[in-house]
Amino acid sequence: MSVDSTAPPGKTPGVLATIDVHCSPCGGFLYASNTAYNCIAIFEINQSTGRLSIIGHQDTLGDTPRQFSISPDGRWLLVCNQDSHTVVSFAIDKQSGLLSPVADGVVEVGSPTCVHFVAAATAAAL
Question: How would you write 3-50 as a 3-class SS string?
Answer without folding.
Answer: CCCCCCCCCCCCCCCCCCEEECCCCCEEEEEECCCCEEEEEEECCCCC
